[in-house]
Write a sequence for this structure.
């Protein structure tokens, strides 16, 4: 298998997969995302454009499976139209909360949602539009803030990876629950419109970034009524 993504969530998945006796053919990250102790022996490709490395991934992959975990890079036609089976773990329920996970969490809290989820889905040519394979749900408590929901979402993402790994690698995909609500997309525009929600009852909870404040300055700026540069907003994960 090949793992594409970033940060601790990706490397935790790589460690679990390696310990489960599956072959990790390659880990693909952005520049500077070094392997943690004990995983330095894994083949590691650093790139800013995973689609440009399609030939490298195809040659390296021994089982045709690619996992996308905490992944800011876009899979373009070279990979989507290849023989590789690409699975993404999305921090959010689909199809209701497609797009940038941080933006989606903000709006889920603003809407007063009492449940959230991590979703495993196949990757197609759209953004979080591929067939849903499995879901890990969790409750949003009335006093949960952005930090709480994000942390619970990241935990759910890894639990979903652990639970789904064997089924994806060795057998048919688990049956998927049917979508019962319309899809929604939350991107940079949904962050720039945050000042218009300052009067909402859940605004303070939705924008209480806690330990994630350094990671999401665009949300902090928008919540404070400041301008959000396009590139900064687009960099949200």
């Amino acid at each position: 298998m090949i793992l594409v993504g970033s940060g601790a969530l990706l490397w935790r998945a790589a460690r679990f997969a390696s310990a489960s006796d599956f072959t990790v053919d390659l880990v693909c990250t952005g520049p500077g995302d070094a392997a943690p102790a004990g995983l330095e022996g894994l083949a590691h490709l650093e790139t800013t454009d995973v689609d440009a490395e399609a030939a490298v991934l195809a040659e390296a992959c021994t089982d045709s499976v690619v996992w996308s975990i905490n992944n800011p890079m876009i899979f373009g036609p070279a990979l989507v139209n290849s023989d590789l089976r690409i699975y993404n773990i999305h921090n959010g329920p689909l199809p209701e909360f497609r797009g940038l996970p941080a933006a989606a969490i903000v709006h889920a809290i603003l809407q007063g949602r009492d449940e959230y989820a991590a979703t495993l889905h196949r990757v197609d040519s759209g953004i979080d539009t591929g067939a849903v394979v499995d879901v890990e749900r969790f409750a949003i408590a009335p006093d949960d803030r952005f930090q709480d929901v994000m942390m619970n979402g990241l935990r759910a993402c890894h639990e979903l990876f652990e639970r789904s790994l064997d089924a994806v690698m060795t057998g048919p995909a688990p049956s998927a629950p049917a979508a019962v609500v319309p899809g929604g997309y939350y991107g940079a525009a949904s962050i720039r419109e945050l000042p218009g929600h300052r009067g909402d009852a859940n605004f303070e909870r939705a924008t209480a970034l806690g330990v994630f404040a350094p990671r999401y300055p665009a949300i902090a700026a928008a919540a404070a009524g400041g301008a959000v540069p396009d590139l900064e907003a687009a960099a949200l994960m």
User: Anything to note?
Assistant: The chain has nine helices and nine strands. The CA atoms of residues 19 and 169 lie 14 Å apart. The longest helix spans residues 146-170. The beta strands are 2-5, 26-29, 44-46, 65-69, 85-90, 98-99, 115-122, 132-139, 185-186.
